[in-house]
Amino acid sequence: MEILATVDLDGVEPGTPGWEAARAAVTASMAAHGFVVVAAHGALGPDLLAALFGRAMPELFALPLDVKRRTVSAKGPFRGYVGQRPGMAFESLAVREPANPDSAREFAAVLWPDGGNPEFCETIVSFAKNMKKLEETVETLLLEGLGVRGETVGAHLGMLEHGVRLSHYGAPLDRETSMSMQAHCDDGMVNGIVQHEVEGLEVHVGDGRWAPVPAEPGSVTFVAGEQLRVVTNGRVPACLHRVRTPSHRERFSALFGPEQKEGVEVRALGDLVDAEHPLQFNPLRHEEYSKWRYSDQGIKFEDPLKAYCGVGKDGAVA
Ligand SMILES: O=C(O)CCC(=O)C(=O)O
Ligand SMILES: [Fe+2]
What we know:
Elements: E1 6-8, H1 19-33, E2 35-39, H2 46-61, H3 65-68, E3 82-83, E4 90-96, H4 101-111, H5 118-146, H6 150-157, E5 160-169, E6 179-184, E7 190-195, E8 201-204, E9 210-212, E10 219-224, H7 226-231, E11 241-244, E12 251-260, H8 286-293, H9 304-309
Parallel strand pairs: 1-2
Antiparallel strand pairs: 2-10, 3-4, 4-5, 5-12, 6-11, 7-10, 7-12, 8-9, 8-11
The structure holds 2-oxoglutaric acid and fe (ii) ion.
């Protein structure tokens, strides 16, 4: 399979003829690189994309900084408003449980205290509902493809919470490298990244080589985070990715991602641990790991997850 081959998930449901081929393609791409690009025109039609990228997001980012900052999270780094970071022309806001109309309304009431913003909420909820279904399809295809039983997949999906992160990038500050976000792995389960018109997302495909993912309408790039690496007992690597925009245009992206419910340990699925595949990571608590990972101590490690909870690795902290 070509590295960036797109897996068409339109109309793919359990029991449909396309299911097995999609399962093989999603699993192969995720296991090899920790990412998969999918096409989902049904979930991301032109009207929804226009409402999200053409109206909701420009309106959101046009708000004054002190208003956007009302959503800064006390729960740790990268949970609420993020911006004004050194060297980055980047701002981003996160909506928790965005498929739930009540939580979308709560978010909007913070930013638009005078009546909320019903149109904004409707757009966020539609986007999140479609992305949640798509994300569950991708995880089900992947976990089934790795040999996990259906009931285990269902239990896993039931232990997730969700967020949407909306991001705005100005022209890259470093005109030479065109880099807008340095290479990193996400710490959650898996993020579905939707780009719009302007290029930027690049995924690492091995040996220092990077592949730019085209900003195709209706396509989503799912990048595995560290939690998925733990859950799959290392079968799926966390995807190293970055944002680089050689055209120097301003750019929006929308990300949907689940993570383990707060307070529930992240651990390998039992179906993926056996004599041939010994346990790779000890169970971890995300809140504690995340605090450590972004601390002065944690940021020193190239592979912080392995350092923190790798089994039988020197320097394991947990
Ligand atoms: O904007 C993008 O395409 C990716 C953003 C990203 O990697 C992140 O927010 O973690
Ligand atoms: Fe990321």
